[in-house]
Amino acid sequence: MSADLTARRFGVPQVTIARFAGRRLNLALVGLLIVVTLVALFARVLAPDNPVQPIGALNLPLGSEGHLLGTDGIGRDILSRTLIGIQTSWFSALVVVASGLVIGGIIGVAAGVSGGWLDNLLMRLTDLFLALPGTLVAIALVAALGFGLQNTLIGIAIVWWPYYARIIRGEARAMAARPHVEAARLAGISRTRVVFRHILPGVVPTAIVTASLDIGNVVILLAGLSFLGLGQAAPAPELGADTARNLQQLLTQWWVPVVPGLAVLLLSLVANLGGDAIRNLLAGRR
Amino acid sequence: MTRFLLRRTGSAVVLVLVLTAVVFVLQAVSPGDPVKAYLGNNASPAAIAAQRQALGLNDPLPVQYFHYIVHALQGNLGMSLRTRRPVMADLHDFLPATVELVAVAFVLALLLGSLYAVSGSLRWPGGAFFRGPLLVLATAPPFLLALGGIILFYAQLQVLPAAGRGVDSTGPSGFVLIDSILGGDATEFVAGVQHLVLPAVILSIAPSISIGRILRSSLDSTLASDYVRTARSKGLRPIVVLGKHVVRNSLGPGLSMAGLQLGFMFAGVVVVEQVFSWPGIGNYLAASIPTSDFPAIAGVTLVLGIIYIVANALVDVLQALADPRLNA
Fold first, then answer.
1. Is B213 within 8 Å of A13 when comparing Cβ atoms?
2. What is the mean pLDDT of each run of 10 residues along chain A (286 residues)?
3. Could you give all domains of chain B from N- to C-terminal order, each with its CATH number?
4. Is the whole model's pTM more than 0.80, yes or no?
5. Mind telling me how many Å the CA of A71 is from chain B's nearest CA?
6. Contact A11 B207 (CB under 8 A)
7. What is the CATH classification number for the domain harbouring A179?
């Protein structure tokens, strides 16, 4: 598989407005990532009402007094539910990406630095995972593990690391061949120290760019799985599940199923724009 | 070429074996009890023990795995815990609808992707007005696009249907479009197309961008190469340069990406089928998930996984045909 292909494996593309813009816009887009993270962090404080308790009239429209985004079929505040849903989605996506980064990073660096049979073994294993339809295997994994957000995250994490391992292995391999690493080895520095002081720092920028571009993919995937019921159990607010559960209201009170879906779109847009901006900022630095 | 074909077939077989092993292990650890699928919940302990023995559930796992593969090859994927029917019979009923939807969506994705790539690479005026909206749509979750499509084209404009395939039962092939052509039924064909439009377009948008971007960067690098400049400077018309020299040399990466995207379309189709009440394998899977019907989930995973593996092997062969340097 060419580098081109591994760089973009998913349906979800990057929106590349930022590429042509200046440093200031890139910084602003990264700021947007931070804002979303803060909103997710303080969702419980920001939410005006209890997200699982019915507190108002049923199916109030958008812009109702006290309920900015209206209420759902049993009178719960949609804004509150959406905010908590954003919290769940955003941190879940970050957890999956972080797990991919850690597992894929360890395997990738181990393979890239050691070379030889270990490299061969680890990369064959990675290719094997990449050749299977990951999302389908993840669905089967979750179904076998039992339902719940935690198992969904474990299931995705199991199929998610190979992509990171591939990219990080390539970068580690290139680093290991650089003159400064050779010099460090010749100076008699221990292998561990060479890896941590001279190879890892060179791998980090690529790893960060890969991870930040991946957050949007994971947000969409998680929303899809949650839509299918592979998330938290019923009363808990979750963006995909809230859309799925209120599907029958689409033609009468469209905002009830659509608002959580729009929140997913917002998260995915911010993640993609922010990831793009991080890439541009790091590329400009080098 | 023969060696390449043999090697590629070999690796596809290995992949299918790995997939069956994964599915088998998951099935072994999954909470559902296959015996109850056969006997119901009120069976006597003696009957349950006898059925366990008959199903080979007391054998060691490697023996069970061997039997699992033999049974799968014979078309026996066990009983669905939910429908109480053989999984294979369910798949036989539901697979054609999905294959028809994914096939149409796949062709659409290739067309949209090519349009994206060519309009960008050749700097068609106004191309950005096509690419920009497509990019934004592709960042949306598929279920949101489905809802938007239903509100706009079904509820507001009333030009497209929002549920089902448009026919009550299908003919011999199981594909609405093919059966209606075979039967010479024009109204059925039109209804089939109308019902396909929304789900297929929605399913094709995200993959079309991935294919389009790879194809575009590949076109750009080919267009910048020396032999294309030579072809141009000897006075060939642009369309001839494109058709004879550029396209064939640029297709490879786009084809690979298209093969990979098929995997994501299989995941997307589950969601899209649910919104559009499409009577396919995705809806079947979505209904099996909440009831923990693992034999059904395993069957769907296996069948879609095998289609994915075979399709990607075909893509590699196509690529080798387009570019003989690859089959070394």
1. yes
2. 38 48 82 91 84 79 78 82 91 94 93 88 88 85 84 90 90 88 90 89 87 88 88 82 84 86 91 85 68
3. 95-283 (1.10.3720.10)
4. yes
5. 19
6. yes
7. 1.10.3720.10
